[in-house]
Amino acid sequence: MARDTTDFRPIEGIDELVEHLAEGNKPRDKWRIGTEHEKFPFYVDGNAPVPYGGERGIRAILEGMQQKLGWDPIIDDGRIIGLVEPTGQGAISLEPGGQFELSGAPLETIHQTCREGNAHLAQVREIAEPMGIRFLGLGGSPKWSLAETPKMPKSRYEIMTRYMPKVGTKGLDMMYRTCTIQVNLDFESEADMRRKMQVSLKLQPLSTALFANSPFTDSRPNGLQSWRGDIWRDTDNQRSGLLEFCFSPEFGFADYVEWALDVPMYFVIRDGHYHDMTHITFRQFMAGAARNEVPDGLPTMGDWANHLSTLFPDVRLKRFLEMRGADGGPWRRICALPAFWVGLLYDEAALDAAEALTSSWTYKEVLAMRNAVPEQGISAPFRNTTLREIARDVMVISRMGLKNRGRKNRDGYDETSFLNTLDEVVARGTTSAEEMLSAYHTRWGGSIEPVFMEYAY
């Protein structure tokens, strides 16, 4: 998230929080695709991490991008920590360890999404390459220890860094040493949101498997295909993971609000200052728990929007749905991830088929699949088959959905071609992580250094 929200409207009651989510309902002709991707900057000389400051640091890249694009700077305590397109059509932000993120504009087609991603990568390369900096498309930092990883000067990250070790064993790794590709998608009603939430929660482990791309940690194999997926199993289980209540046939906006109310907060912003609120839940905040702790210590709608952005379930509900299961990866994956989910969720026949395929899947079964995927990838078992076989059926549905959409580029091609990189994973029966591990044990000669050449943008 590039910029935290400031909306000073006071909250009168829980109904307003539910209505905040319901305001996301959009007619189908207004549905859009918002794609986000993160990448690790590194110095080509020595494959070292890039700090924030200095003539060849993250700040200098942001300043160069600001000059090139003309976007507005996002300032935190006097330091530039991101950029936002003046009309809200996209943003550039920093993750805690310097991961460079593009939060794309809400677009109508995957063709536009892919052009946007390619243009961004070309722009950032133009600024960074003269500094000797490139970017790595993986789901996990393959070389640098947590101590070696730079820390970005964002106030919310200082609060999270103090809090994470109190609630899990892997939260700092999540913050500083992982990257993802995400897509944000719309819904037209509460019922439509429910269907999409339930289908995408059930299929999120498959997304993790298909995009598994983080097999190295601290310069050696970590025994996993998606280290990032494993990290999310013990980051902060109060605010992340697979949400069982979402599997209910009656699940709705109010259920998500009730859950979110009882999750500890991270912060509130008052007069540009971030106040640590990790000791209370939002429900306690609404009951007046911070009245004497911070200026204007009663909750606002901006506080609620920021709180929703600090919840990390596998699929996050805001005024749209965020698909959060995939590792970061090469540029083709930036286009494939939104294509996969748009094909499944934005065509009625495809959504019907995906819902029928997954309707009998239970929470316990999906949780077991989620726990197996980080190590086993698409070979993970499910019932009497494997995720690879499930993937065959799901890819057919996604391809059908994209074909039914009929969104063609100027050359007459529809969006189905963006699934080709995932079709290759299913056809081979091996993930990107397994391909990297094979290279490590053969042509890379037991070194992870070649990954910085072969998986760099």
TrEMBL record:
Disulfide bonds join 114-335. It is an enzyme of class 6 (ligase). Belongs to the glutamate--cysteine ligase type 2 family. EgtA subfamily. Pfam families: GCS2. It catalyses: L-cysteine + L-glutamate + ATP = gamma-L-glutamyl-L-cysteine + ADP + phosphate + H(+). Catalyzes the synthesis of gamma-glutamylcysteine (gamma-GC). Its EC number is 6.3.2.2. InterPro entries: GCL_bact_plant (IPR035434), GCS2 (IPR006336), Gln_synth/guanido_kin_cat_dom (IPR014746), Glut_cys_lig_pln_type (IPR011556). Pathway: Sulfur metabolism; glutathione biosynthesis; glutathione from L-cysteine and L-glutamate: step 1/2. GO terms for molecular function: ATP binding; glutamate-cysteine ligase activity. Homodimer or monomer when oxidized or reduced, respectively. One of its GO terms (biological process) is glutathione biosynthetic process. This is Glutamate--cysteine ligase. Keywords: ATP-binding, Disulfide bond, Glutathione biosynthesis, Ligase, Nucleotide-binding, Transit peptide.
